[in-house]
From TrEMBL:
Coiled-coil boundaries: none
Residue ranges of every copy of the RDD domain listed in the record: 28-154
Main localization category: membrane
Localization: Membrane
Transmembrane intervals: 28-53, 65-85, 116-141
Protein name: RDD family protein
Length: 277
């Protein structure tokens, strides 16, 4: 029997159980802002180390410090501290906390010492020696805005702050309750379903003229998939179709859960459903 192949999209990762997960990598701009914050923090720590060392040795000039001490401080601030921070926090530095990112492995797992050390070591070349130019150029031409250190370490920056869920659409309008019991609503194309759902959630805040125009346009796209067409205005019709599809999909999920429970004899998982305002 030939082995089946699975197509993995660019923004998906494949776990060890061969499950494709849809992930959201942090964008180039946010990665740059986070890196800038980390660089400023490192510069602050570096200056603090030099001033403290200068005070300890008796007020000598900064350029008179021992070269060994200078190199040790640079290695500590540029490599050791970033490695320790990313290892302890599992990929979260101060800059990444600020922009809502986290360094993870390409398979979605948490990073460890090896990945953090490789990233910090190559970061000296990418960020410090080239003033961030090399990291910026590489990140610009990679799908997940990964720099050279990420490529070698097998990591990328994952978005941790998911956008708020939109408010759900309301129930079927009362004047179409009888129609909803007998209506036949076929599966809508994804584009049409997405536009109808978005309109039903945001219509209350739209300008009246634009609201009516959008309702007419979306209703014209939805009507070929609905029978019979109810005697209602375009906005009420769209709201009713969106609510009816949601309620019927929720009922189908409940039936699947009940059927699975009857076959396995085990308690169902947490109930699935759509919130209703």
């Amino acid at each position: 029997m030939p082995a089946a192949t699975v197509e993995i999209r660019q923004d998906e990762i494949l776990t060890g159980e061969a499950v494709a997960l849809d992930v959201q990598p942090l964008g180039f701009f946010l990665r740059a802002v986070g890196a800038l914050i980390d660089v400023l923090c490192s510069i602050g720590i570096l200056l603090l180390f030099f001033f403290v060392a200068n005070w300890i040795v008796g007020g000598l000039r900064l350029d008179s410090l021992s070269p060994i001490l200078t190199i040790s401080v640079l290695v500590l601030v540029l490599v050791v501290i970033p490695t320790a921070v990313e290892t302890i926090t599992r990929g979260r530095s101060l800059g990444k906390l600020a922009v809502g990112g986290r360094i993870v492995r390409t398979d979605g797992g948490a990073t460890g010492f090896r990945q953090a050390f490789i990233r910090a070591l190559l970061g000296v070349l990418e960020i410090w020696f080239t003033f961030g130019a090399l990291a910026g150029i590489v990140a610009t031409f990679t799908p997940r805005s990964t720099r050279l250190g990420d490529m070698v370490a097998g990591t990328y920056c994952e978005r941790t702050r998911a956008p708020k869920l939109p408010f759900p659409a309301g129930p079927v309008p009362d004047q179409l309750a009888e129609w909803a019991r007998v209506a036949d609503v076929a599966r809508l194309p994804d584009r049409v379903a997405r536009r109808a759902g978005q309109f039903a959630r945001t219509a209350a805040g739209m300008d009246p003229t634009a609201r009516m125009r959008s309702a007419e346009r979306i209703a014209a796209e939805v009507r070929p998939f609905v029978a019979p067409i109810p005697p209602a205005d375009a906005e009420t019709f769209v709201r009713a179709v969106v609510a009816l599809r949601r309620d019927r999909e929720f009922a189908a999920l409940q039936r699947i859960d009940q059927r699975a429970q009857s076959l396995t004899g085990s308690a169902p998982d947490a109930p699935r459903g759509f919130p209703v305002r």
